[in-house]
Specification:
By secondary structure, the chain is an alpha+beta fold. The protein has 17 helices and 22 strands. The structure holds flavin-adenine dinucleotide.
Amino acid sequence: MSDTHQDAHEISRRAVLKSAAIGGAAFVAGGTVLTGCASDLQLHSVELLEAKGEWLSKRVWCLSGNKVLSAGAGSPMVATTAARQIYRPRSAEEISCVVRSLPANTAIACVGGGHESSNVAAFASSEAIVLDMAHLKSIEFRDDDQGTLVTVGAGVVFRELVEALKVHHGALPVGTGPGVGVVGFLVNGGLSGYFSRRLGLLGQRVEGMTIVTAAGDIRVLTRADELLTAMLGAGSALAIVVDVTIRMANEKVVQLAEQRVMAFESRAQAVEFSRGAVRFLRDRVLSNPSVSVEVVVTGTKVIVATLVFYDSFQGSAAEFVKPLEELAAGMKLPVVAQAHWTSWYETASALWPVINGQKGDPLATLQHCFGTEGMPADQHLDFVCDTVVGQSPLDEAELSIIEIRTLGGAALSGAKVPSGNCQHTFFVNLVTLYDAKPKTPQQRQEIVELTKRVVDKARLVEGLNVDFSGTHSQADDLDRSTAAAEMFGSEALAQTVKAMKSKMDPDNRLRFHPFAKFL
Ligand SMILES: Cc1cc2nc3c(=O)[nH]c(=O)nc-3n(C[C@H](O)[C@H](O)[C@H](O)COP(=O)(O)OP(=O)(O)OC[C@H]3O[C@@H](n4cnc5c(N)ncnc54)[C@H](O)[C@@H]3O)c2cc1C
């Protein structure tokens, strides 16, 4: 074991022992802490939530667009969890106690930030219990000889992690949503559109993890464990995460960022601007590892172009952005807002007010992604403009966004984790999003059909991959499924994940995750 691995092991091991000590029973055996319900820690001492009905509406950010089809227009969307019980554990030992106290075939669902698009864990089933991780809020920093490690509890969301990193002058490839769970993002292979080109996926920076297995054992994983790698893209199917230890980068990795917001009136204008912007993305940005770009087309009729300039960037950012400004000027699209950020923190938190403003009663969503492993060819770029931008339900689902992004860089060259997100150079995310309340069931169905039509067409484009991670796919889409090899990045990684699933969870207790079609 390298020093780094040993250090990560030690910090997690200490965290486990600390939490185990609260319950009073822990037996350490070769890095594995075996524990049961001690006499002073019984199931009834773990917090049990009584108000199940309210819980779901408070804990999920949105409802799946596939789950809002039957309620009548204007009527309240009745949505409640099917789970038998909801526990709110406060430590690894409390989780272990719940798991061991239940019959060995009881299904278990975990909820972290509550942002997964099919709500599979939050709805669960009548045979299942939910573990709501909301109390596991610890964020601990520690230096070793290679820099700084941060250990994050399973209830921490990105807003909390980003604020803590700011104090420590740190940076990480975080997700854009302030309320997205750090662990829920990481165990499903999450990516950062702004930072992954420079810092890799968050999972690629993980040094250790504390888990509770489906049998109730507490284990501390290091990079020497094959299971740790499998956890970093398929973990929601394999074990219950208590905390994760991540190697922090320095805030100086980001020099500055520029954002331009252009208004458009017709869909034809959005398509035409995208046609120029995706070629700028391919020809000027993908060849330059010191820059990333994200072009977002929204249902509210703006195009947001954000360029992030990393520490290695040399030259003038203002000059670099000019072709996009000229493209907008040539089309007479007014620049309605612009921003200039000079720190990682400002860039990481920039979209929080926008996301907080996306409201619905409830919000309904469908998530899909498209991308290429290498440089996108003209046919891929044309498809994105003509079909994704041209035909997605931006008018029908007014809060929808299409994110067109550069990936590759450190995400592509880093260690492979089982997520297609680290195999792709070019990435497009279609987020269908709307307030479901004023829509009739027919309108909601039409939004589903329009979205599916775009996804079905994408599957016919040679070299374009579709729905290749747990963070950017819609697990409850009926009769439409991607292949396990695409989801986990390769056939070999898919086989590794399947083997791990049989070994770690032979009774499939952990069945509420985005990979249920494969595992
Ligand atoms: C507004 C918004 C912004 C987003 N931004 C990004 C982005 O920038 N990049 C990106 O890649 N994705 C992004 N996503 C997608 C998001 O990362 C995924 O949906 C992620 O899985 C959500 O995690 P969560 O903990 O919030 O959700 P949850 O629904 O709580 O959990 C998601 C899944 O992870 C499992 N899980 C959660 N905690 C644990 C645990 N402790 N142990 C085991 N399994 C667990 C759950 O069982 C469930 O299957 C965004 C989503 C939204 C709605």
